[in-house]
């Protein structure tokens, strides 16, 4: 079975499904909670961050409830198949991760603060799974949009590894890679803001309970570390 071959490794570009030049579906124009444009145009001065942390339904809600976030949308990134469908991504044959794209105002929320939300809201040590969800599409990932984002993400990973290790957890498996040459393909409309449309729907988000301290006011990573309360 082809799916079984790629449940525990990402297919090479030669092995991946061929995809298509255009998407098979339309994406809604507006965010159902925030009322903002999903795919732009975005106001001047906003920045983009991309995070993979398991099933993107719950991951998106983590960020649309964060002050300073202008819009969020979910999609597929880090694979080889152009314009994949959800079913193709779930087959493991495209190589994509389920990702939430976060468009944020850096004057209101820092990239460091978004990384704190990212690390604490999932278990980044699980490889190609997140909780009961298994497969390469559920891997932990950060796709960066600048050298500054890359440096900040690497520093925060180092800081979080320290506190995870001291708390008895394993090694972080999160991939940190440039978004350049890793296109983000928005997911089908029914996935966008799924938990707003389906409040009792499935949410696979669950962290380790290990906390990073808040980034210093006006400062940058490396982020301080702090044990979980209680």
From TrEMBL:
Gene3D superfamilies: Peptide methionine sulphoxide reductase MsrA
Entry keyword annotation includes Oxidoreductase: yes
Function: Has an important function as a repair enzyme for proteins that have been inactivated by oxidation. Catalyzes the reversible oxidation-reduction of methionine sulfoxide in proteins to methionine.
Top-level taxonomic group: Bacteria
Major enzyme class: oxidoreductase
Catalytic activity: L-methionyl-[protein] + [thioredoxin]-disulfide + H2O = L-methionyl-(S)-S-oxide-[protein] + [thioredoxin]-dithiol; [thioredoxin]-disulfide + L-methionine + H2O = L-methionine (S)-S-oxide + [thioredoxin]-dithiol
Similarity field: Belongs to the MsrA Met sulfoxide reductase family.
Lineage, opening ranks: Bacteria, Bacillati, Actinomycetota, Actinomycetes, Kitasatosporales
Domain Peptide methionine sulphoxide reductase MsrA as annotated: residue spans: 50-203
UniProt-annotated stretches for the region Disordered: 211-230
Native source species: Streptomyces oryzae
Keyword Endoplasmic reticulum tagged: no
Protein name: Peptide methionine sulfoxide reductase MsrA
NCBIfam families in alphabetical order: msrA (TIGR00401)
SUPFAM superfamilies: Peptide methionine sulfoxide reductase (SSF55068)
């Amino acid at each position: 079975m082809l799916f079984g071959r790629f449940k525990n490794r990402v297919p090479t570009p030669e092995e991946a499904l061929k995809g298509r030049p255009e998407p098979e579906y339309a994406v809604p124009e507006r965010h159902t909670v925030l009322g903002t444009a999903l795919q732009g145009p975005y106001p001047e001065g906003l920045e983009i961050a991309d995070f993979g942390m398991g099933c993107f339904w719950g991951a998106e809600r983590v960020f649309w409830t964060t002050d300073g976030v202008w819009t969020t949308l979910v999609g597929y990134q880090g694979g080889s198949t152009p314009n994949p469908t959800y079913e193709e991504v779930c087959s493991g044959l495209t190589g994509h991760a389920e990702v939430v794209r976060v468009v944020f105002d850096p004057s209101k929320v820092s990239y460091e603060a978004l990384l704190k939300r990212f690390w604490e809201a999932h278990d980044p040590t699980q490889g190609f799974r997140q909780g009961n969800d298994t497969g390469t599409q559920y891997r932990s990932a950060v796709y960066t949009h600048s050298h500054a984002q890359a440096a900040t993400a690497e520093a925060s990973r180092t800081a979080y590894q320290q506190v995870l290790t001291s708390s008895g957890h394993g090694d972080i498996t999160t991939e940190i890679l440039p978004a350049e040459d890793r296109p983000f393909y928005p997911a089908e409309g029914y996935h966008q803001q799924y938990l707003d449309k389906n409040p009792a729907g499935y949410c696979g988000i669950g962290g380790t309970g290990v906390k990073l301290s808040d980034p210093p006011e006006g400062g940058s990573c490396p982020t301080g570390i702090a044990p979980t309360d209680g």
